[in-house]
Amino acid sequence: MRYVVLILLALMCTFKLFLSYKGLNQPEAMDQAQIARSVANGNGFVTKFYRPVELQTLKNKSEIKAIDFNSYRDVNHAPLNIVSMAVALKLTGNNDFVAARIPMDENGEPSQNLYDADRTISAVSCFYFFLAMVLAYLLIARMFDEVVAAASVCCMAVSELALDYAVSGLPQPLMMCCLLLGLHFLINAKNSLEHDDSVGVTLHLGISFVCLSLMCLSGWLSVWLFVGYLVFCAFYFRPYGMYGGVGIGIFAICCAYSLWSNNQACGSYLGNAFYGIFDCFGGSTEDAMRSVSASVASLDSSMLVIRFFGAVFSQVKSLYVNTCSIIVAPFFFLALFFRYKRGRVQCVKWAVFSMWCFSCLGMALYGTDMPLSSGQLAILFAPLFAAFGFSLLFNFIARLNTPYITFGQLRGLSVLGVVLLCAGSQIASFPNDLYRGVWLKEKGSPHYPPYYPPALNCKLVDITNPNDILMTDMPWAVAWYADRRAIWLPKELEDYKKINEEIIPGSAAVIQGILMTPLSYDPIIPSSYAPTNRMKSGRPGGFTAVTEVSGAFAPLALNLPLAIMDPRRSMFINNFAPVPNSQNPDEFQLGEIVNISNSGTNAQFDDIVTLNAGAAVLYRKRGQ
Questions:
Q1: What is the pLDDT of residues 168-221, one digit of tens each?
Q2: How far apart are CA 266 and CA 273, in angstroms?
Q3: Residue 462: beta bridge partners?
Q4: In the sheet that 608-612 helps form, which strands lie side by side, from edge to edge?
Q5: Cβ contact 20:433 at 8 Å
Q6: Which terminus of the chain has a smaller tally of CB atoms within 10 A, N or C?
Q7: How far apart are CA 486 and CA 509, in angstroms?
Q8: What distance in Å separates the CA atoms of residue 418 and residue 422, rounded to the nearest whole number?
Q9: What is the distance in angstroms between the CA of the first residue and the CA of the last residue of the chain?
Q10: What share of the chain is helix, strand, coil (3-state, %, to 5)?
Q11: DSSP 102
Q12: Which residue has the higher pLDDT, 148 or 513?
């Protein structure tokens, strides 16, 4: 049975990583990938994605006169997943940006739509997902039996959400490995406790604390799970409280260097964690990161408690979807009222429940209710919830007296039904994914909109200076695909002026231009990607739309180059030409852009540069 499960896992991971692969589509994954490239090149945790609030923080440090972008250390991500990405990039040679660029065909056009280094990053996640499922199978088999283990892992193997995480580049698969490995040692500690082996209890709990500390070093939000685990150990093992203190000490040792590095870089051990709570308390984390003056004063202090518990209940409400839509997963909460004969099952059950409770608090403060996100922790519990759900289901089936069908047959039918329900969306999309994978072959189909790697990896690289900075609404993608320094475009003109006039000067870098992407102006992009104030106009790619989104930023086109990524997928793409400002014919009005045909009109606008066929155009101030 175990070999069948392994073959199914391998087939599904292979299909997702090759035939139906569409590249990365998570900002956090791209951000970590570009930092991993820096680590692989021996430059440390240096990032090319700059948040305005960080720039202001660095500028406020008295010992810093000018920001050194060559040694600008990241303070937002945990290091372990980044290090594993760096190893993969180094081994495959994709750490060399120039060598790994998308190749051009004989016509000077990109020969493929996908970036090869994306697949390297996804392969790392896929490896950890496969390893996590192996650990889950072994853990569940120790707790129950191989039937429950096989059923739980098969549900994960065919779940669309689980497979999306497997190729996402997010740290959740690595975090799941660390969590499941830690629970293996928790069972060992429970077995030692039953044999009155206090040394064994201490040793195995200590190793489990190390595993969960590594989980925290994979994703900082999982610290909430660690807190839940500490609370459980403090009250489950005697003497009460002692092992909680041991866990805190081990966590401090494992994470001390990372926390100290954050403090050295930005003056805070927690990095930018404070701004992560803005979404929960009436503000906006995105707005805070894109502002140079974000503070607690911008939070709405009314009804804070109600908002917080509303966010907690939102996590509970979306639990079914976030645990891979495994229909038996919610049965875990019924299993809480069922007393298992095996002590190790009872032990793991309450440990998981404690960690889940604290994870809900953490996701309410910092996370999201989106199923696929770096702030989503419910996916870590999916195989365990499924295992308890199946165990309870099989217990109910065993109590049935069915003269025409045996227990084994009924159990097999129930497993088949649950697995097919979990695979429903995967089965529905399989023909289209297979057709697209075979038809497009190596060319590939990216997650567009909003991401189109050739637009950033090809011409944008050629027309920009690697030592200067771009302002963009998609800095993570610019830093990863174009290997260019990028500031997250502020939403207020005053913030831009402060960055350009007070923060950047003296750093030996200048702001070279502004890049606007479909994240800001394409009305067909799902709300999970687009900013909350995205434009409502029905003119895809129209500059009037950019003006509506940018507000006070419209005059910036008079001073800086502006690149616009066209969101349309058709082969025939109109160019856009600026209409001169009536007050100053040498300057362009951002809000007065009109469509022109491809009839050679570009000849009178020498400052229009096509970034990619149908992908983007660059507008410059006349004469630059």
A1: 999 999 999 999 999 999 999 999 999 999 999 999 999 999 999 999 999 999
A2: 12
A3: none
A4: 49-50, 485-488, 469-472, 511-516, 562-565, 616-619, 608-612
A5: yes
A6: C
A7: 12
A8: 6
A9: 68
A10: 60, 10, 35
A11: P
A12: 148
